[in-house]
């Protein structure tokens, strides 16, 4: 599966579990320290690893990753199903390079091919960087809110968009 500028996303497997967790940790520590201060809320390594195992085992889920150029870890991932983007992350050293946009475009195209007319995702209300990206790409808040999964359970907002228009 292609990505922007010839960068390739590949299907993730069990061998990628630790790399998925590690990229999530790196991105969260860089982007969410104001929401999850690490001295008060250490990253839940074991719980995140267990969640990634469940996602990879879920037959409805697709997890695509982009390997780091040096072969050590991942620089991006997107996990989705027929109607929702479940997880998206880009390594902070690659923020602004178009990897998130490309990964979302790949997920939306797959959803469209599977017959879905609309996609949804959940984003932390305090994740202003991601919200700006989503809104730039045509995603809009649905008005639905929920508490996050991890302490201190910050507010999450649902965003939706049609799958037909390019991301």
Describe this protein's structure:
With 167 residues, this protein is an alpha+beta fold. The chain has one domain: 3-Layer(aba) Sandwich (Aminopeptidase), CATH 3.40.630. It has four helices and seven strands; from the N terminus they run βααβββαβαββ. Strands 1-2-3-4-5-7-6 form a seven-stranded mixed sheet. The radius of gyration is 15 Å and the shape is globular. The two termini are 16 Å apart.
Mean pLDDT reading: 94
Largest sheet: 7 strands, mixed
Per CATH, which architecture? 3-Layer(aba) Sandwich
Order of helices and strands: EHHEEEHEHEE
Contiguous low-pLDDT stretches (5 residues minimum) are 2-6
| Radius of gyration using CA atoms only | 15 Å
Distance between the termini: 16 Å
Strand content: 25-35%
Number of helices: 4
Strands in their spatial order, largest beta sheet: 1-2-3-4-5-7-6
Query: Would you report the number of β strands?
Result: 7
Instruction: State the CATH topology.
Output: Aminopeptidase
State the fourth-level CATH superfamily: Gcn5-related N-acetyltransferase (GNAT)
Q: What coarse outline follows from CA principal-axis ratios?
A: globular
Count of individual domains: 1
Structural class: alpha+beta
Proportion of helical residues: 25-40%
């Amino acid at each position: 599966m292609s990505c922007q500028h010839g960068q390739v996303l590949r299907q993730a497997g069990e061998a990628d579990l630790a790399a998925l967790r590690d990229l999530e940790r790196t991105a969260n520590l860089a982007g969410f320290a104001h929401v999850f201060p690490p001295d008060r809320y250490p990253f839940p390594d074991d719980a995140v690893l267990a969640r990634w195992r469940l996602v990879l085992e879920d037959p409805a889920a697709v997890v695509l990753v982009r390997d780091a150029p040096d072969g050590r870890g991942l620089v991006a991932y997107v996990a989705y199903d027929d109607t929702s983007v479940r997880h998206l992350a880009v390594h902070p050293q690659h923020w602004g390079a178009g990897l998130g946009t490309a990964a979302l475009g790949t997920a939306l195209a797959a959803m469209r091919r599977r017959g879905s007319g609309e996609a949804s995702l959940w984003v932390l209300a305090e994740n202003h960087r991601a919200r700006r990206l989503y809104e730039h790409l045509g995603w809009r808040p649905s008005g639905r809110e929920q508490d996050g999964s991890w302490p201190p359970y910050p507010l999450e907002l649902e965003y939706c968009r049609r799958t037909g228009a390019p991301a």
